[in-house]
Specification:
alpha+beta, Alpha-Beta Plaits, 4-stranded antiparallel beta sheet, 6 strands
């Protein structure tokens, strides 16, 4: 529990590996924008109160490991990252004031998993509670 964050009455460790792809697999764009896109995604994550633990921008997809506050819905954070980064790319690198329909940067979906406490550690903790308090509350 080294990476656990918390407030007075709350502890959390909400780390998510997430991956998404650009629409139409824009490989050439990623070769040109790789460094700027990484900085942009980190800055956008910080705007939402999230931390980017690591990230890799590949020619055909983006991989990030990110911590998100428990009060923030995961889907809204990813929607924010994808939407604002698409707007920034259109403005900074395409010279457009607005993004027009038919020119999306990211594909619609994403893949996500949860990473946090290891299952064995959770099981050990639960069993330790049974030993300390007895098995009366077991179900």
């Amino acid at each position: 529990m080294d990476d656990v964050e918390g407030l007075t009455h709350t502890l959390w460790e909400c780390k998510y590996p997430v991956m998404w792809i650009p629409k139409y697999l824009k490989k050439l764009m990623f070769c040109k924008l790789r460094k700027q896109m990484g900085t942009l995604l980190k800055d956008l994550a910080m705007e939402k109160g999230c931390k980017t633990l690591e990230g890799h921008l590949r020619p055909y997809h983006v991989h990030m490991r990110i911590t998100i506050l428990p009060k923030s819905p995961f889907s809204s954070v990813i929607e924010f990252l994808k939407g604002k980064s698409a707007i920034a790319v259109a403005r900074q690198f395409s010279g457009k004031e607005r993004i027009f329909t038919g020119e999306p940067l990211w594909a619609r979906g994403y893949a996500v998993s949860t990473v946090g406490f290891e299952l064995d550690r959770v099981r050990q903790y639960i069993r330790a509670q049974e030993e300390v308090h007895g098995s009366k509350g077991r179900f």
